[in-house]
Amino acid sequence: MTRVHMIRMAAALGLVVCGTVPAQAQKVSLLLDWAWIPYHTVFLIAQDRGFYKEAGLDVTIEQGRGSATTTVVVGQGTFDMGHVNITNAAQAIAKGVPLKSVAVYQHRTAASFIGIKGKVNLKDAASLKTLKIGSTPGGSDALSLALFSKLNNMPQSQLNVVGLDGAAKRAALLSGSVDVVSGDSHAYSAIVRGAGQQPEMLLLGDLGVPLLGFGFIANETFIKNQGASIKKFLAASKKGFAAGIENPTKACEFMKSKVLLTGAIEQCVDYFMGLMDLSQKPEDPNWGRQTLDEWKALVATLESVNEIQPGKTADAFFTNDFVP
Terminal CA-to-CA distance of the chain, rounded, Å? Predict the structure, then answer.
């Protein structure tokens, strides 16, 4: 064998050997909006079925303590990305927290007023005037009420609002201590149906409140250094959404086998699909893509109730560079 042949063979063998060694997976840390909730099953599915691994990612998933907290922690760089209510992200970005929204799959807020069918009739904004409304002071509840009041020219003094913590709202609604509660439609409709009754709902999105729902954020440093990983993460997560929607019962059973999730499977499915019904379908080619118009509406609305101060243009809050 000539020297040239030996060099060529060595080179070929080197290529073969290199091809069999997998590249080191890029680590990505995701902080959720809250402790385990049915719709988080999509991330567990993506992890269990190897969607993240196939994308060359090593993803860790941690429970959160509210979207507002997650935005701050992600902005600090403690986590690379977050799954949050994007309206909360907008508030944080306006205050200078270094992050951006990188995808939104729920372009219509789930914030609503929920009562029990047969006990209340929620046909329009005015129908709330005679009702006792259970609402949690502070956070998203307070913001929803403020925006509802302003955009419907209905001062909060015209509403009978009862301050309740999150846990107390459920009991108050089912016991009749309040007529309706303010909260996410998918969460409370599942609670009402789980109690053997039917929900009566009035969504804020139908009352002219242009809040955005769930999506993903990333801190500025991670965006600058690992943009390709963000795109891979979103594409793999999208597969998780598709798998969860394909068989929601199986998805809920899988989640209950992996983490602590209270309630029956039926209630989990109800909760999960309630949110998915308000979200973009994963087969939508524009899944995750944000528009300048929706961000202009959100920013202007938040400014109108002094939730954020003017100073940032709408395009400073988001990027579509990583949408799969």
Answer: 50
Q: How many residues does the chain have?
A: 324
Q: 217: closest CA among 111, 109, 292, 322?
A: 322
The confidence score (pLDDT) of residue 22 equals 47
Quick one: pLDDT at residue 142?
81
Amino acid found at 302: L
Parallel/antiparallel/unpaired status of strands 214-219 and 99-104: antiparallel
Q: Cα angle vertex 77, ends 25, 299, to 5°?
A: 115
Which residues make beta-bridge pairs with 162?
A: 134
Sign, CA dihedral 96-32-282-57, equals positive
Q: What is the DSSP string of 156-207?
A: GGGSEEEE--HHHHHHHHHHTSSSEEEEEHHHHHHHHHHTT--EEEEEGGGG
Tell me which H or E stretch contains 115.
strand 111-116
pLDDT at 14 over 90: no
Residues 6+ apart with CB under 8 A from 302: 87, 90, 91, 94, 308
Check residues 94 and 137 and name the one with the higher pLDDT: 94
User: Tens digits of per-residue pLDDT, 310-324?
Assistant: 989 999 999 999 999
pLDDT-wise least confident of 26-30, 146-150, 223-227, 270-274: 146-150
Question: From edge to edge, which strands make up the β-sheet containing 214-219?
Answer: 57-62, 26-31, 81-85, 214-219, 99-104
pLDDT, tens digit, 9 for 90 and up, residues 175-220? 999 999 999 999 999 999 999 999 999 999 888 888 999 999 999 9
Write out the H or E segment, with its range, that includes residue 36. none
Query: How far, in Å, CA of 226 to CA of 223, rounded?
Result: 6
What tokens does 147 get? Answer: 């925006």
